Every structure is written in C-alpha cells, then in structure tokens.
Amino acid sequence: MTLEALALQGRSKTYSTLAASVTTRIYELRKELIKESLGSSQTPEHQMEFVANIHGIEFINDSRACNINSTWFALESVNHPVIWIAGGADRGNDYSIIRELVESKVKAIILLGNSQKILEAFSDIDIPIIQATDMDEAVETGYYLGETGDCMLLSPACASFEMFENYEARGIAFKKAVRKL
How many other C-beta atoms can be found within 10 angstroms of the C-beta atom of residue 52? Predict the structure, then answer.
C-alpha cells in the first residue's frame, strides 16, 4: 500500500498509521483487513479536515493546531502553495521553527486576533501578511488572494480564546465562512 493511498495524510498521521499497522500484525490480523481500514479511516474533525474545493482552491480546517508543532506538521503535509490563516492567543511559540516551511510553501498569511508575534516573525519574507477582523474576512481575503492549485489552511498555532470559545468553535466558524463563498 502506498502512502498516497492512506486515508489520513501528513507526516504525523503517517507515523501513527505505521505504528498501528505494526501493532495489528503483532496480533496477526489479516493484511486485507488492515489495508481496508487504513484506506478508509476518516480524519477527525478540525484536524487537517478537508472542507471544500472551490474554483480549484482546497480549504483545510486544522483548527486543533493550537501550537507551533502542530502547525509545522500541517504545513509540512500540504503539497500546494498555502494561504495560511494563523493567530490567536500566543502561548510562547518560537516561530523560527516553521520559518523554512513558511518561506517555501506559504504565499500569504492572514492573521486573526492578537498576532503581533507572528507578524514580527515573518514580516521580512516577501509575502502579503494581512490582519483580518474575523473569520469571514479572513476566509474571503484568502479566497481572493488564491488561485487554482492553492490551499487555504487554517492552522492557527495559537489558542482560540481571544476570538472563539475553543478550537471547535473556531473550526466551525472557518467551515461556515468557506460555505458562504
């Protein structure tokens, strides 16, 4: 089975899938059953969740990415130019960890909430960085910046409590905003 055939994509999910498949072999489960389940698993809501493809722009909800490590895995797993929606209540992130990924994959950053630290971390990169007042504005702005083959990725790297009750509410707001397009 190829990595592309796995239902759950991204490096961290691939590692988890490989660990699970090794475990199932220890218990001598049939290979066909393992292959079937690995090809049909569903991504949990708000974790690299595909929302829509509108005019060739893919929209991914990774609202659960409340820290820099989760956002690193999200950015690393996307194979298209990224319009990245980020920000919220920063928890002391070191954004230099994702700098190389931002430089190589991100074509625009849309900021939500108190995002001064993100702005400072990437302001010297030659890409648009735009502050949005709410999720609707963030999604609409990103949509107009996007083009066929791009991916709009909500992967905030921050907590949600500044604008949303929790990451679930933030992810739901993203999905609603996408559906309004």
Answer: 14
For 135, how many CA atoms within 13 A lie in the half-sphere containing its CB?
A: 24
What type of residue sits at position 79?
N
According to DSSP, the residues that pair with 111 across neighbouring strands are 86, 131
181: exposed, middle or buried (Cβ count in 10 Å: 0-12, 13-18, 19+): middle
Q: Which residues pair with 58 in a beta bridge?
A: 53, 151
Q: How many CA atoms lie within 13 A of 31 on its CB side?
A: 1
- Range from 115-119, 142-146, 150-154, 162-166 carrying the lowest mean pLDDT: 162-166
Closest listed residue to residue 34, CA positions, set 50, 19, 55, 12: 19
Cα radius of gyration (the chain): 17
Residues 151-174, mean pLDDT to the nearest whole number: 94
Nearest to 125 by CA among 156, 155, 146, 104: 104
Token couple for 174: 């993203």
Domains along the chain with CATH numbers = 3-40 (no CATH), 49-180 (3.90.190.20)
Q: Are 81 and 101 in contact (CB under 8 A)?
A: no
Q: How far apart are CA 85 and CA 170, in angstroms?
A: 11
